[in-house]
Amino acid sequence: MSMLKDEDISDLQGCMVDGYTPEDINRVFGRLEEAFGVRLVCVWDYFDAFGYGGNSQFYVVGDDGRLHESAGDLYTWLNFDPAADEAPSSPGTPDSWRGAPADLAEPEGDDGFYNIALENRD
Q1: What percent of the chain stands above pLDDT 70?
Q2: pLDDT computed for residue 106 by the predictor
Q3: Which residues contact 100 (CB under 8 A, 6 or more apart)?
Q4: N or C: which end of the chain has fewer CB within 10 A?
């Protein structure tokens, strides 16, 4: 596994300020997993004929496969305008991204990459 340096992902800062698509999630989370060895997923409310939809939230996948709440600065680093006062200058260390175990319903589908749906309406 390649361990990239922070500057190799600097272009990701604020990349989701205008929102994100499942394709964006796969691209960004794929790069973060390659750089840091941490698996992240985006859990969406549902999947239907039009794709993923509803609310979405980021989670860290533990070594045992269990999802953990996203913590630390990663979400803010990705989603805030880098010029904003609230925007952190880095995503923080990968060990700071993993919060408490998540209490979620059993997912009903995923894309095989980094997107998961709680409900399959397709």
Answers
A1: 94
A2: 85
A3: 68, 69, 71
A4: N
Neighbour tally for 58: CB within 10 Å = 22
Transcribe 31-97 into DSSP letters: HHHHHH---EEEEEEEEETTEEEEEEEEEEEPTTS-EEEE-TTHHHHHHS-TTSTT--SS---GGGS
- The residue written with tokens 């990701």 in the block is 12
- Amino acid found at 48: D
What pLDDT digit, counting tens, does each position of 19-64 carry?
999 999 999 999 999 999 999 999 999 999 999 999 999 999 999 9
Neighbouring C-alpha atoms within 13 Å toward the C-beta of 17: 13
Nearest to 2 by CA among 41, 39, 32: 32
pTM (2 decimals)?
A: 0.90
Comparing CA positions, the residue from 41, 85, 43 lying closest to residue 62 is 41
